[in-house]
Amino acid sequence: MVWVTPLPPGLKMAGIFGGDTLRSLAAATPAEQVERIETVDTYERGLIAHVQELHAPVDPVDEMKPAQSKPLRLKVNAYEGKEGENLLFWVRDVELTMDAALISTERLRVAFAVSNLGGRAKAWAYTREATTPDCEALLSEPAFRPTNYEYRQRSRFLACKQGKRELHEYIQEMRVLAASLVGNPLPEHIKVTVFMDGLKVGPSRTQLFCVHANTMEDAIQIALQEEYSHKQARTLMSMRQGRNSSTVAMQGAPAAGASIGPVPMELGTAVQSSIRCYGCGKLGHMQ
């Protein structure tokens, strides 16, 4: 180990500030010397504190914690298995809610699904909870559905008609009924045929019979596009007719002070007020 002999205060200050600075400090008044020394001391203390802060060990508690996802609380309407309730949409709603609430374990997922059942569906679920620990298997059981649920939904889909409704209302019902047949879906060509047959007579139906749609969604897009084009054409036609009517009215309007009456378009029907009759010699007519 090497021992370093401490320098005298005078030599130490000369090494830090330099000889010229030290001589100017010695020539200064006592008040100026105190002020300069305090300034240097303040600077030195700040520099030491900054160096110590940079080399200080980092506390693990003070480190940036990773962002954690917070669960989102949502509400699901209870499913009781009554007529008109859509089981497929309820199952999808339950799955989305469980994902948003960060429910990951199967036991908690089953408990959450059962808690959103009602009526005979909930009573059936309590009897199956002990033997069906899997949430997906529990929700796929058809026991709490209405009687002949698939048959009823399929019959409603095949008999669906547009009638006096708007096109978007008819499309929405067809999509809901088609989604309810996910367990035993119909072929796409049957869906297209049913959709085309249910449309009322109009431009959309005519266009669909002129083109070939592979899926029901393709047929829906064609029908919507044709209806939009037809509405745009009717709007432009109405604007042109209104503009033409206004132009004709302005051109046919009599001037201020002019007599209102039929405007002669032929020379034979014109009032010849300046022509003299050769028979009687009067103005306004000819013999």
TrEMBL record:
It comes from the Eukaryota. Coiled coil: none annotated. It holds the Pfam family Retrotrans_gag. Residues 112-200 form the Retrotransposon gag domain. PANTHER family: LDOC1 RELATED, TRANSPOSON TY3-I GAG POLYPROTEIN. This is Gag protein. It comes from Phytophthora palmivora.
